[in-house]
Design a protein that fits this description.
Helix content is 84%, strand content 0%. With 120 residues, it is an all-alpha fold. Helix 1 crosses helix 4, helix 2 packs across helix 3 and helix 3 runs antiparallel to helix 4. The radius of gyration is 14 Å and the shape is elongated.
Amino acid sequence: MKSEILKFVLIGIGAVTLDFLSYIIYLNIVTISIAKGASFITGSILSYFGNKFWTFNQQSKSYREVLRFYLLYFSSLVVNVSTNSFLLELVSNYILPFVIATFLSVSINFLGMKFWVYKQ
């Protein structure tokens, strides 16, 4: 489990970095909520493949697994975007809402992947 957490964190750092950089780029193109949603999805693609093959060492090809992953990510996307939007109403800084929204969705994602998507 410690190894999975470490790998999940490393993949997560990459996914969140991609999420954040995408968010900054998308902010110049679309509304805040669309930018946050699109950047979250961009990061989720890295997360899916990195966690499937490295963190949880799943080599199987399963449409059910992909469906579960994206149902989980859709749920955490709703939490992420809602939290980010709510907190932006309270503070004028984009960073704090991003960090809090990301922390919540990361927690949901690890537990969901460990015990539902990639359960062994």
